[in-house]
Structure prediction request, 400 residues.
Amino acid sequence: MGVILESLTPAYGGYSVARDEKVILIKGAIPGEVVDVEIEEKKKDYSVGSVVGVIEPSEDRVEPPCPVFGRCGGCQLQFIRYERQLSMKDEVLHDTLRRLGGIEVPSEPPLAADQWHYRRRAQYKVSRSGEVGFFRASSRDVITFEECPLMHDGINAILREIKGKCDVRNLSDIHIALGDTPVALLKGRDYDSSLFESFVEVGLSGIAYNDSIAYGGAFTGFDLNGLRYTVSPWSFFQAHWELNREVARLLIEGLMPLEGKTVLDLYAGAGNFSLPAAAAAKEVVAVEGNPYAAEDAARNLELNAIRNCKIVRSSTEKYRINRKFDVIILDPPRPGLTSEVMKKILENPSGEIVYISCNPATLARDLKKLKSTYDIRSVRQIDFFPNTFHIESIAFLKMR
Prediction:
């Protein structure tokens, strides 16, 4: 028998908050619902539970289209109407900014696009028995399925072919990236190289195995608002490509005019923001520590005949800012800015900063430090991962 509770407010991680004797984080509830909750974990200051029955459902509750939703760990919010997903994420984002950063900024409409079949990058797991799918939440068990409603149709088609035609024994991971052509990164041990032929037959134009190219081309390509953008199987790129193009456009528009200005792009990747910035600015310095991504960035500069962008192959932590830039672009990983990077930025302030974040908590922490020097003009949600709890955002800052 569970506990009957009213779900009150959304919380990061796909939870809703309720209160009994102490705070309870509920998986599977929508704020405003009355639900039957089974407590799964008790901590000193809070408990964690899951919905086992809905007594008074929200009008925003919908039937998840995926047959393995709730077992697969890939997404958490398919049972919530998409517009409500966006508003819940906005509530979490701005509540986090207030609580952790003391930051109040007006809420702007989220940047959003397709809810389904948007992902152009998949990271499948292979079980010891050769089943291909995603991990169950908080587990190493592999959940299999016919197709994933978040994946681009082309990736779902390739997965079906792989399941039917390829020997996946001794593989642990199959990563697929789909731009103008599909490429894959296979990870494993003691894999028979003759078996790569079956992966070629399913339509892959390039195959990487661990840290080397096994077949064909080493990258796939995308249109980045009129620019040619390529990535290798080892490089990160935004899986929701159509929305990524919109974010790149918004970023450049928000910095205009860029004529005559210098831009420092930290955590630059393959040049997702450096390339469009270089088209408008006087000079761009792109800093990237991943050697594969830096190589992709160099290729992209050549493909687009861009001459005013310099690639620095260095981690952001080791890079020395030894000159003044007009603009700094920050796109750090989930832990946010390290103390060393924050110190360098505050000691070498630029006129403007754009901060792209994938973690509201570290964004709030970092903006709290930056607001000693900068005014925070805006913070806006980017829903790169519909139907999941992930919250990304873009912040524009201007030096006082």
Q: What stands out?
A: Helices lie at 82-101, 153-165, 196-201, 241-255, 274-280, 291-303, 339-347, 360-370. The mean pLDDT is 96. The two ends are 57 Å apart (CA to CA).
